[in-house]
Amino acid sequence: MAGFDRADPVIMGHILSQHRELHEQITAVRHAFALSPAAVPDRPAVLHARLVELRDHLHGHFRQEEAGGFMEESLARMPRLARAARAVLGQHPTLLAEIDRLIATLPASDAPPAEWARATADFERLTAHLLDHERQENAVVQEGYNEDLGLA
Ligand SMILES: [Fe+2]
Ligand SMILES: [Fe+2]
Asked: Structural domain of residue 125, as residue ranges?
């Protein structure tokens, strides 16, 4: 059957492993938010570093997805998925803008608790958007494969 002798499963595996890495990085940021400011005075610096790591990871990951070999492969076979794939890839700039805004508005170490609560809520919202994005992406690719293999 078509599919097994192509390079796509390798590319898909690569993207999926990046999605797993993304989950680990999100967890690392969440832990940094949960650090006690009293116990870890440089928490803002730690958070900033973790968020920049996450941002760089996203930037590289998005570029690879947009460069093709991932969605593109599914699309070549399943033109009817093209609209869904374009829509999901079109979310990348908004997601990057969201994390850039969070990094730019991180409170200082002596900021009032309300500011930290706002930053934590912004991060949880970003996390929800990112996970939703990856879920949609996985669904598009999965649907392409299922159809290609006659499973749909
Ligand atoms: Fe993506
Ligand atoms: Fe992705």
From this structure: 8-148
Rg (CA), the chain: 18
- Higher pLDDT, residue 2 or 53: 53
This prediction has a pTM of 0.84
* Centroid of ligand 1 to alpha carbon of 64 (angstroms): 9
Ion ligand 2 contact residues with beta carbon within 5 A: 137
CA distances from 97 to 20, 47, 85, 120, 150 (A): 22, 18, 20, 17, 39
Between CA 134 and CA 142, with CA 140 as vertex, the angle to 5 degrees is 95
136 within a domain of the structure (yes/no): yes
Per-residue model confidence as pLDDT tens digits over 31-71:
999 988 888 888 899 999 999 999 999 999 999 888 866 66
CA of 37 to the centre of ligand 2 (A): 33
Distance 56 CA to ligand 1 centre (A): 13
- Whether residue 3 is contained in a domain is answered as no
For residues 76-109, one letter each, b for 16 or more C-beta atoms within 10 angstroms of the residue's C-beta and e for the rest, the string is: ebbeebeebbeebbebbeebeebbeebeeebbee
Domain count, the chain: 1
